[in-house]
Amino acid sequence: MITAVLGVLAALTICFAIVFIKDVVKHKNNLESNSWVKVSAIGFITNFFDTLGIGSFAPTTALLKAFKQTKDRVIPGTLNVACTIPVVAEAFIFMTVIKVEPITLIGMLAAAALGAWVGAGIVSKLPERIIQFTMGVALFITAFLMFASKVGWMPGGGDAIGLEGGKLIFAIVANFVLGALMTAGIGLYAPCMALVYFLGMSPNIAFPIMMGSCAFLMPVASIKFVKEGAYDRKASLGITIGGAIGVFIAAYIVKSLPLNILGWLVIGVILYTSITMLKSASKAHSKSGVAIE
């Protein structure tokens, strides 16, 4: 059954890649003015550590803003499009080496993909200040979840490799919501890991579930972002290339690192980015005189 799941994932990814490449080629003469070197390096770094469980959306957002590589308005679409192929590579790696009960895995993956399809159509049309406000709050929540994990506030999980009954229904509904939120640039890893732990599953199960969820929802959401033109083409292509290299080095060469200190650093960076996003949203609100609802 896992082979069939991976076959579907491969087909989705090929469809996305065709749409993405055709769009980049169509606009090859008017790509953005950002730096190939910088966006590729960002992709390599963030997806390298993403493979080790850090998560890539929040760090990528922080680095894109720090090096002024794209506009806030297109960050959600850029994150989804740019990280699709690296995350699919991660999913193939982890879904083949860590066993998960098929019904649980398929149910949660399908829910995330459906949530992304619904969410992308909404997010791609939102005003910039709403994007800034949403991402600012989301990044703050992500930083809190990572902090809670560090200090032992999050549940420690169990040893189950699957769910049934009410827990399974709850997990599917929750992953639908997380899939929709991810299209706004809200990383799925931290909340999905918290969900897995909360439901008493083995901590290792979080990797194929969260990476598989992202891998299934991202081609779906990213096709919509591409068709809407709501992403940075040059940054997305650079991050894709650098990110794919980072994933394979992390998975097959490095495999594990002492990430405790790095984890605290990432929390600090995410919190800082959250504050800057909220400040930007506040300034936009002051200039427009329109409330953020």
UniProtKB/TrEMBL annotation:
Membrane-crossing residue ranges in chain numbering: 41-64, 103-124, 130-148, 168-199, 205-223, 235-255, 261-278
Coiled coil (residue ranges): none
Subcellular locations according to the entry: Cell membrane; Membrane
Major subcellular location class: membrane
Keywords (A to Z) from UniProt: Cell membrane, Membrane, Transmembrane, Transmembrane helix
Pfam families named among the record's database cross-references: TauE (PF01925)
UniProt-recorded name of the protein: Probable membrane transporter protein
InterPro entries listed in its UniProt record: TM_pro_TauE-like
Membrane topology listed for this record: Multi-pass membrane protein
Family: Belongs to the 4-toluene sulfonate uptake permease (TSUP) (TC 2.A.102) family.
